[in-house]
Design goal:
Strand order of the largest sheet: 1-10-11-12-15-9-8-4
Oligomer: single chain
Order of helices and strands: HHHHEHEHEHEEHEHEEEHEEEHEEEHEEH
CATH class of the largest domain: Alpha Beta
Number of helices: 13
Number of domains: 2
CATH topology of the largest domain: BirA Bifunctional Protein, domain 2
Distance between the termini: 55 Å
Mean pLDDT: 94
Largest sheet: 8 strands, mixed
Length: 429
């Protein structure tokens, strides 16, 4: 949600931010609705004041036995009572129209975000690790783990874009997630949360999955939704709360299943586990004071990167341009891991600073120690990392010529000391 006061004070800056997103000006429409709504609010207040005053005058007129005046005033009060509901309905309709307009507009990019229409304008800022040179043609993750990835069984029960992981790969996925959680909680100060996987409309609105991205979500009965990411329940922990400064920064993490329709991804990444309707992810969420948010964004990105460093997987970090950022983000770093079979870097984490965009939708605030009032917190979220894509990266980068896969050293403790996953367990060879 956007700050109406800021739009009133600098409508040109607001429209410039939308232009960077490739959108037409909206400040004029917003301010027109706002002015009409405020005018109605003033009119309502005036009529209510007149009704109250006239009601008092009726009593005075009757006390003075001035029945004619009392009758006139009673007629005026009756007319006011009839008019007030009409104005209230008009004001509510304008308020809804204003909310719908604001709810449909993305966050404005930070000043240092590169301007561009799509991913072609993203800016690479660093690469870490060199892609491995193979003495054989590397296979993709589906070929490497064929015996443990059952797409047919998943399809029979759930349809396309699902997988059943069996045996050693089910364990490897759990090992990867456990390693990530231990790292983030043990070294980086995140508190582990086990959140609900079903949330109500308000929670989805709060983190901006609704209303714009309704078609990407899996709805359940009533007003429940399956979470598209643990960002939703983790960020909503501070919904309608006023935090004390000592609770900031608040850092939480969770490993959950995530559910997305991938409505806009028809025909993309149809092979394997790259793009699934259900996948697991370790999510990082930070709640901070505004002045600490930029530094927290860098810190969160570094925490996500550390996972790949310890797994010794090559990756790069890019700053997303204004046209490629997510709806709720002010600034986003994408971390992309190297996949040998694709001969390309693929996204494995997005770390986003959302400013107070989500906090306004959730009414999440804090009370600064030296101020009487409250301020909206800033929210940040990132994958630390996507577990399924990390599994893919491990299989492809650590595969060997005989079909086996070396287990990264940091995962061995979670794999009962296993150093190599034999080929016969993975692909039956």
């Amino acid at each position: 949600m956007h700050d109406l006061r800021a739009i009133r004070e600098n409508p040109a800056a607001f429209d410039a931010g939308l232009a960077a997103r490739g959108l037409p000006p909206q400040a004029g429409s917003i301010l027109d609705l706002d002015e009409r709504r405020r005018a109605l609010q003033t009119a309502l207040q005036d009529l209510q004041n007149r009704r109250n005053a006239a009601s008092k005058d009726i009593g005075a007129a009757k006390a003075a036995k001035d029945e004619a005046r009392a009758s006139t005033l009673m007629g005026e009060v009756a007319a006011l009572k009839g008019r007030l509901p009409e104005l209230e309905q008009e004001e509510q309709a304008l308020a809804r129209a204003l909310d719908e307009l604001l709810m449909g507009l993305p966050n404005l990019p930070a000043d240092d975000v590169p301007i561009g229409p799509d991913e072609s304008a993203n800016v690479e800022i660093r690469r870490v690790g060199a892609p491995r040179s193979f003495a054989f043609t590397p296979r993709d993750h589906v070929a490497v783990g064929a015996a443990c990835m059952d797409f047919d069984a998943a399809s029979r029960m759930s349809g396309a874009r699902f997988v059943v992981l069996r045996g050693v790969l089910a364990r490897l996925e759990r090992a990867i997630a456990s390693f990530m959680l231990d790292l983030h909680t043990g070294e980086f100060g995140y508190s582990e949360i086990a959140p609900p996987l079903l949330v109500r409309d308000d929670a989805m609105y709060g983190t901006a999955q609704l209303p714009k991205f309704r078609d990407d979500q899996f709805g359940a009965s009533g007003d429940f939704w399956l979470i598209p990411t643990a960002e939703v329940p983790l960020t909503n922990l501070v919904r309608e709360q006023i935090l004390t400064p000592d609770r900031l920064p608040m850092r939480v993490t969770a490993w959950t299943a995530c559910f997305r329709r991938e409505a806009g991804a028809a025909g993309r990444d149809t092979r394997g586990m790259i793009r699934q309707h259900q996948f697991s992810k370790v999510e990082l969420v930070s709640i901070t004071a505004p002045e600490d948010a930029r530094a927290e964004h860098e810190r969160m990105t570094a925490c996500a990167e550390e996972v790949l460093k310890r797994l010794e997987l090559p990756y790069r970090v890019v700053t997303l341009c204004s046209g490629d950022m997510g709806f709720g983000a002010r600034k986003t770093y994408d971390i992309e891991v190297w996949l040998p079979a694709q001969d390309a870097y693929r996204e494995i984490s997005s770390c986003s600073w959302c400013g107070d965009f989500q906090a306004r939708r959730m009414n999440a605030r804090y009370r600064p120690a030296d101020e009487k009032g409250t301020r909206f917190v800033h929210t940040l979220n990132g994958s630390g990392l996507a577990v399924g894509r990390t599994l893919i990266a491990v299989l492809e980068n650590y595969q060997q010529a005989d079909g086996s896969v070396r287990v990264p050293e940091v995962l061995r403790a979670f794999m009962r000391g296993m150093e190599v996953i034999p080929a016969d367990l993975l692909n039956g060879s």
